[in-house]
Amino acid sequence: MITFPNAKINLGLNIVAKRPDGYHDIETVFYPIPLRDALEIVPSRSGKTELHISGIKIDGDPEKNLIMQAYRSFQSRFDLPPLDIYLHKAIPFGAGLGGGSADAAYMLNMLRTFFKLPISDDELCESASSLGADCPFFIYNHPLMAEGIGDIFTPVNVSLKGYHIILVKPPVAVPTAEAYAKVKPTKPTLRIPDIINKPVTEWKAELVNDFESSVFTAHPDIKKIKETLYNEGADYASMSGSGSAVYGLFREKKNIKKLFPGHLVWDGICEI
After folding, report:
1. What is the Cα Rg of the chain in Å?
2. What is the set of active-site residues?
3. Beta bridge partners of residue 51, listed in sequence order
4. 92-134 residue pLDDT tens
5. Which of helix, strand or coil describes residue 162?
6. Which stretches of the chain are DSSP H helices?
7. CATH code for residues 164-269
8. Domain at 2-155: CATH architecture
9. Where are the domains of the chain?
10. Which of 81, 190, 246, 265 lies most in the core, judged by the most C-beta atoms within 10 Å?
């Protein structure tokens, strides 16, 4: 069985308060985009569960990968047989695109379907949330306002269907802990759902990502990407999440890959 986990971008990101538990309350809109990994499961040939990764190289112990954590969580509950798991990685990590969370959420959903597990949609989302605050978003996989630590979701009415999106990932990752350490929580004057109800051409002045000020100071090359996208005619450009990927929304297709040598550049068309 094969599925294709997709990435997300953030439409705005306000860091509104620091919590007593050390986490931060945020407000953002998660929006799915058609940049996809490929994830396949088949019965194991070796008698043990193994994760095989191609595409973008991922360092570290495969057992710590969220895909394996998703499998182990259901294996312990339902006595699942061993599997060979194949991941072709196309969504860059350390980019603010939610690729690891998407892989984990799709893995849970695929296991439910493949093994016909008696799990409701609510239980599936609860299992996903145990792996990461944003994992349940990829179960719903349509635009949602995220609040709290990014785990409280409400529907929003926003469509970018037909917009061309260019995503630029520089050869640097921004650790989430580093990004949070340098921000000052502030209650926004305008809420994101109110801003995104306006035309995209009006977002530039009001729809902000609070991580940009500190990340751009530490990584001026990321700031330069955003400036270049605007110079090339983007209606709106922003860093996604805590970075380091930056996206631009264009009404027409643009061939600007040559402007970003050494960077990963992806372009597609918004589908929702």
Report:
1. 19
2. 8, 134
3. 85
4. 988 999 999 999 999 999 999 999 999 999 999 999 999 999 9
5. coil
6. 66-78, 99-114, 121-129, 137-140, 176-181, 192-196, 212-218, 220-231
7. 3.30.70.890
8. 2-Layer Sandwich (3.30)
9. 2-155, 164-269
10. 246
